[in-house]
Write a structure and sequence with these properties.
five-stranded antiparallel sheet; 7 strands
């Protein structure tokens, strides 16, 4: 009976932590870009972890911090961005570091910006998009044949909005 009580208490603690994070994110003011530091940190953590694991890197844990700065104008601001710094460990105890800037975040689905991931100091990917920003608005992203991984290529976009060059991601 004691083991069941400890298990139940552990589940309650996890649920309480999730509710607290949700409450904090709901209370944190968003700037006009729609970015907030908790949302950017949480989504970057999730999508970076998924990208690393799809690339064959077993992530034991990772945590991210974000700091949002930018112009406050009416409507979404193109100048708003969040500096992101993630740290973690692989299952075989190598250091993980994901750093860069996020200019767009779609909750639990994707981030856009300029992000670099390193494992033990070796770059494993550099990407402008992590996740599937073209996923349906509701539910989970729908896999497609055109979905790429951050380490497959790096796509840059010209200042005029046209697609630029593609180069190797490693």
């Amino acid at each position: 009976m004691g083991a069941l009580r400890h298990q139940r208490n552990g589940l309650l603690a996890v649920a309480a932590a999730a509710l607290a994070i949700g409450a904090l994110a709901a209370c944190e003011p968003r700037n006009d870009s729609g970015l907030n530091s908790i949302g950017v940190a949480f989504t970057t953590d999730r999508v970076s972890t998924r990208a690393l694991e799809k690339g064959g890197i077993d992530v034991r844990w990772m945590t991210c911090n974000a700091d949002v700065k930018g112009k406050h104008t009416s409507g979404p601001s193109k100048d708003a961005k969040a500096s992101v710094d993630c740290r973690g460990r692989t299952n075989d105890d190598r250091a993980i570091r994901v750093t860069g800037t996020v200019t767009y975040e779609r909750k639990n689905i994707c981030v856009r910006g300029d992000l670099t991931a390193k494992v033990d100091g070796h770059q494993v990917f550099q990407a402008n998009v992590i996740g599937d920003c073209n996923a349906r608005k509701t539910g989970h992203p729908r896999p497609s044949r055109s979905t790429t991984h951050p380490w497959d290529k790096r796509t840059t976009q010209g200042t005029d909005g046209t697609k630029g060059t593609e180069t190797g991601g490693k």
